[in-house]
Design goal:
With 137 residues, the protein is α+β, with helices and mostly antiparallel strands. It contains one helix and four strands; from the N terminus they run αββββ. A four-stranded antiparallel beta sheet has the order 1-2-3-4, with helices on one face. It is elongated. The chain starts with a helix and ends in a 17-residue tail after the last strand.
């Protein structure tokens, strides 16, 4: 009987603690997307210093892999022009980051030197603001 009670108590603890633990893991892995997008921003600025427009492909800015170092996010340049660009990091299908709720897709928009951030669970276009809940530190 005591063993049964112990198993039930452990089961309840695991059921409560595991989702919180996985959310913490996802939040930690989100830093991969932040770092990859930051590197992409820097690469865009280097490209623009030598060209009339921002780069429209990852290969132009010497990013050979479309995924981040951990393989949790895929990078893409959505738009580019002479005055700005929009880049995104999308959680890779089959990874736990897909379940990162409103932070599964992260994006940065630079326009005329102004930077805006956005995020969404599943979207085709982003709604940008000066701050975003997923981007808060």
């Amino acid at each position: 009987m005591e063993l049964l009670i112990t198993v039930v108590v452990l089961g309840i603890i695991v059921a409560v603690a595991l989702p919180s633990f996985m959310d913490s893991i996802r939040k930690g892995r989100r830093s991969e997307a932040f770092a990859a997008l930051s590197a992409l921003q820097q690469a865009q600025e280097r490209w623009r210093s030598n060209n009339a427009v921002y780069a429209d492909t990852l290969t132009k800015v010497n990013i050979s892999s479309p995924t981040g170092p951990g393989g949790y996010y895929a990078l893409d340049i959505i738009t580019s022009s002479a005055t700005g660009y929009e880049v995104k990091a999308t959680a890779v299908s089959g990874t736990s980051q897909v379940k990162d709720g409103p932070c599964a897709n992260l994006s940065v928009q630079v326009n005329g030197g102004n930077i805006k951030y956005a995020s969404c669970a599943t979207c085709t276009t982003f709604t940008y603001a000066a701050s975003d809940v997923c981007w808060s530190r």
